[in-house]
């Protein structure tokens, strides 16, 4: 790896990328056939070298991790890579960190973040058909060490080696780690589809159905995801704020309103996160709701002369990442008002 003179160590595409490719320069020199399902994998060694996994390894604060995500998202392809990284760290890493294997290096799953090659990719499967964001509607279950269920939208799933599969039992929501079946005609795979979305199109997603798929008891990592789901969702939203700060960096040089509101958001994030030590809890993350992204989004909308924030996707589909504010904020504010231990263990 030969570094360039790029001013930011977290502008990975400027340092290691190729203008005509979404992959690192040396990746294509290794006789690897590039596909739409190895984008994130190709960049994992560089993410590790630049310290993007230091937070989940307990080496730096959550605020430092967020600043790295913002820097990466300043690059055009950086939003896709930052999304893949933040989802693996926040959600899959969050599950691992809350599991019985919580000590880094205590299980081979930590190879996703430890720098050991070959790099492992972890994903988490929560959403199911008819799920509607409520854990009580999950249908995935494990009976007699056999997993049956369908997961409809697993971010990074197209590249994942292992999936944290959220299931439902009589009382709890156990999470098991499942090896992502690679066989083209696996007898216990009822459906499998890798797909991409219009926004962050380099990120691969997976829909997969399993029927009586063997799951050893030792693959149980968390007995009840209901204690954790809200915390992981809030971390995702917190990181989306970071991606928005990065994505609007270049626009802030062109538009005074964007510069003003972006500065306000940067200062808010610093005040909110800089003092947090260790792993932020759901209570702390919920306390800061609503995350104040709307004024910046409004200024971006004005800059492009659009009538509605929803129209931003016509400029760049990636803007869809940041249009979660209205319906989700109402839900989170409701939970904030009812901030009790029972209400926070919840359907997220």
Q: Which terms would index this structure?
A:
348 residues, alpha+beta, Butyryl-CoA Dehydrogenase, subunit A, domain 2, 3 domains, four-stranded antiparallel beta sheet, 10 helices, 34% helix, 15% strand, globular, disordered C terminus
What does this entry show, briefly?
This protein is α+β, with helices and mostly antiparallel strands and 348 residues long. The chain has 3 domains: 12-112, no CATH class; 122-225, Beta Barrel (Butyryl-CoA Dehydrogenase, subunit A, domain 2), CATH 2.40.110; 226-337, no CATH class. Helices cover 34% and strands 15% of the residues.
Descriptive overview:
- The structure is a single chain.
- The protein is α+β, with helices and mostly antiparallel strands and 348 residues long.
- It folds into 3 domains: 101 residues, no CATH class; 104 residues, Beta Barrel (Butyryl-CoA Dehydrogenase, subunit A, domain 2), CATH 2.40.110; 112 residues, no CATH class.
- It is 34% helix and 15% strand.
- The chain has 10 helices and 10 strands.
- The strands form 3 sheets. The chain has a 4-stranded mixed β-sheet with strand order 3-6-7-10, covered by helices on one side.
- A hairpin with a 2-residue loop joins β1 and β2.
- α3 crosses α5.
- The relative contact order is 0.12.
- The C terminus is likely disordered.
Secondary structure: elements and pairs:
Blueprint: H1 12-16, E1 17-18, E2 21-24, H2 39-49, H3 62-73, H4 78-97, E3 122-125, E4 141-143, E5 146-155, E6 162-166, E7 175-179, E8 189-195, E9 205-214, E10 220-222, H5 229-247, H6 249-252, H7 256-273, H8 282-287, H9 294-303, H10 325-337
Parallel strand pairs: 3-6
Antiparallel strand pairs: 1-2, 4-5, 5-9, 6-7, 7-10, 8-9
Helix pairs in contact: 3-4, 3-5, 4-5, 7-9
């Amino acid at each position: 790896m030969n570094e360039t003179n790029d001013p930011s160590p977290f502008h990975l595409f400027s340092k290691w990328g190729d203008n005509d490719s979404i992959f690192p320069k040396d990746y294509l020199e290794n006789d690897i056939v590039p596909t739409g399902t190895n984008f994130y994998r190709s960049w994992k060694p560089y993410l590790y070298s630049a310290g993007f996994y230091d937070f989940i390894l307990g080496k730096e604060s959550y605020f430092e991790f967020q600043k790295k995500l913002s820097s990466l998202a300043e690059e055009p392809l950086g939003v896709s890579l930052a999304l893949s990284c933040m989802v693996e760290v926040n959600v899959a890493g969050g599950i691992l960190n809350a599991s019985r294997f919580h000590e880094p290096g205590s299980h081979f799953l930590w190879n996703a973040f430890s720098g050991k090659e070959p790099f492992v990719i972890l994903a988490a499967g929560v959403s199911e058909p008819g799920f509607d964001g409520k854990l009580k509607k999950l249908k995935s279950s494990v009976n007699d060490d056999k997993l049956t269920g369908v997961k409809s939208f697993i971010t990074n799933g197209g590249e994942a080696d292992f999936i944290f599969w959220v299931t439902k039992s009589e009382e709890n929501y156990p999470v098991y780690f499942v090896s992502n079946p690679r066989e083209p005609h696996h007898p216990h795979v009822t459906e499998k589809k890798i797909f991409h979305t219009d926004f962050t199109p380099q990120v691969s997603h997976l829909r997969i159905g399993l029927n009586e798929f063997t799951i050893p008891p030792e693959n149980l990592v968390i007995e009840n995801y209901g204690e954790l789901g809200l915390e992981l969702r809030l971390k995702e939203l917190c990181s989306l704020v970071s991606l928005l700060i990065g994505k609007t960096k270049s626009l802030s040089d062109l538009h005074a309103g964007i510069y003003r509101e972006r500065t306000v958001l940067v200062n808010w994030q610093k005040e909110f996160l800089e003092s947090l030590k260790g792993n932020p809890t759901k209570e702390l993350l919920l306390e800061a709701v609503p995350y104040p992204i709307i004024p910046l989004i409004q200024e971006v909308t004005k800059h492009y002369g659009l009538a509605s924030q929803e129209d931003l996707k016509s400029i760049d589909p990636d803007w869809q990442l940041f249009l979660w504010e209205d319906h989700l904020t109402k839900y989170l504010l409701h939970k904030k008002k009812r901030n009790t231990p029972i209400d926070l263990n919840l359907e997220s």
